[in-house]
Amino acid sequence: MTPNAAAFASTKPDSTSVVTASGKHLRSIGRGTVTLQINSPNPGILALLDVLLVPELEFSLISVYKLNEDHLRVEFTEHLEAVISDPFQRDFIVSAPWSAASQAYLILAIGDTERSKASALVTTTNEERSGTQLSQRDLQEILWHERTGHMGKTRLPLLYEVSRGLPELLAKRYHLSNSQCWVCYLTNLRRLPFPNSTTKSTRALELVHADLTGRIIVKSFGGAEYLAILVDDFTRMVWVLPLAKKSDFVSAFIK
């Protein structure tokens, strides 16, 4: 949680009750994403999700439990540092030095420079890593993004939690690389809600919904290159009719 609205990359309204260590009761006015910049040969960001915006808070706080919940590792070293790392890729480190004045480990977030007196050390764990290896990681992220129907990066960890056999890479809720899906950029898909129907059927075959798809690249054994889908509005019965030509639709429907 943080009192600085400028630290957020995006926010949405929220009203969560917060109790500080001194017993003071506060309330958040927003919830969103705060990013930490990773300065490396392959720049990226570490996104902290579901961060609370609490204006009356005196300074920003990060929960170790929440970091672990996001599949991040937190270690406390003998050098009085809190080290945040990725246990899967091991390709970055966020080091938070101890502050005797505030009695806490301090991390500098983007847009939060005024409220922090210490800079976070952000480095890579292996600066000699080749560009080929980095691109292979990026390609794997893009590949699974496409395999799951261009699912959003914040949804992939949910899929990982309820599935078996998926790579641990999908467990991360943040995105390290700058690789983007050009298909998503071009299409910018938005799912529109279906309009409320004003027609009510009272018997079978009174209203039939139809759709025609094709041309299918690989023909069926019977030579079909198109599929006609019919749905009866009253009974919800579905027919799938293979067609060799589009012009066969009317005759197949009547039959």
TrEMBL record:
The keyword Heme does not apply. One of its GO terms (biological process) is proteolysis. SUPFAM superfamilies: Ribonuclease H-like. Residues 1-70 form the Retrovirus-related Pol polyprotein from transposon TNT 1-94-like beta-barrel domain. It comes from the Eukaryota. GO terms for molecular function: nucleic acid binding; peptidase activity. The keyword Transcription regulation does not apply. Keywords: Hydrolase, Protease. This is Retrovirus-related Pol polyprotein from transposon TNT 1-94-like beta-barrel domain-containing protein.
